[in-house]
Automatic annotation (TrEMBL):
Annotated keywords: ATP-binding, Nucleotide-binding, Transport
Species assigned in the record: Microvirga guangxiensis
Gene Ontology molecular-function annotations: ATP binding; ATP hydrolysis activity
Protein name, per record: Amino acid/amide ABC transporter ATP-binding protein 1, HAAT family (TC 3.A.1.4.-)
SMART domains linked: AAA (SM00382)
PROSITE patterns (alphabetical): ABC_TRANSPORTER_2
Cellular component GO terms, alphabetical: plasma membrane
Length: 252
């Protein structure tokens, strides 16, 4: 359900690298239950903002709050345990494990099995029901016993989403989920994101503007590390500054 209450917010977020300002005074609010896109031309600072929000970088200045709690000083694993989980631009699955085993590995931590290394591998069978539910949720049931290396690129991304869902996140951050995909895979992953977002919040960095227009409730546009525009897709796409910086060149 779409809410007007922010689940994730950033105020005055700034990131400097040896005098170069990659992100400058970014103030961002993501409402609970929405699909929110972060877009902009290459070099706009999108991935840096993502890394700041998920604590892979520590901001030079600014504050980040998740569910009303200040998470600015936390580590990536700590924010993940709070329910803020991200994917990466490059698919991060174990290529030589089966689809089922990849998801079972992801389920070990929330089930407190990750540190019980003395248990036999067969003990992970208790995770099978939940793992198969997640695999079905991303339309990979027919591929459960194939190794990840045998999957198409789009299905590998679907598997990665299944492994992030294994952590039962309240909010999912997707870094260019459609990158490198053909038309058929793009449609499949877009449908998957729509289903996933029915009971959680999604923030995504995405270059495919057709996907953004179709999926997202709200769009924030970055240019040169600063917010250029924010609002519905219709609002930001009509902004002449945005068209000049990004969207106009995209459709030429």
């Amino acid at each position: 359900m779409v809410s007007t209450q922010p689940i994730l917010s950033a105020t005055g977020l700034t990131m400097e690298f040896r005098g170069f300002v990659a992100v400058k005074d970014v103030t961002l609010s993501v409402n609970e239950g929405t699909i929110h896109a972060l877009i902009g031309p290459n070099g706009a600072g999108k991935t840096t903002v993502f890394n700041l929000l998920t604590k892979f970088l520590t901001p030079t200045r600014g504050q980040i709050s998740f569910r009303g709690n200040d998470i600015t000083g936390l580590k990536p694993a700590e924010v993940a345990r709070l329910g803020l989980v991200r994917s990466f631009q490059i698919s991060a699955v174990f290529p030589h494990l089966t689809v089922l085993d990849n998801v079972r590995v992801a389920l070990q931590r929330p089930k407190n099995l990750a540190t019980q290394f003395w248990l036999p591998f067969s003990s992970l069978s208790v995770l099978d029901d939940r793992a198969l539910e997640l695999i079905d949720a991303v339309n990979l049931s027919a591929y459960a016993h194939l190794t990840a290396s045998e999957l198409s690129y789009g299905r590998k991304r679907a598997l990665e989403i299944a492994t992030t869902l294994a952590l039962d996140p309240a909010m999912l951050l997707l870094d260019e989920p459609m990158a490198g995909m053909g038309h058929e895979d793009i449609g499949r992953i877009a449908d998957l994101i729509r289903r996933v977002a029915k009971n959680r919040t999604v923030l995504m960095v995405e270059h495919n503007l057709n996907v953004v227009a179709d999926l997202c409730d709200r769009v924030t546009v970055l240019a040169r590390g600063e917010i250029l525009s924010d609002g519905s897709y219709a609002t930001v796409s009509a902004d002449p500054r945005v068209r000049e910086a990004y969207m106009g060149t995209e459709h030429e």
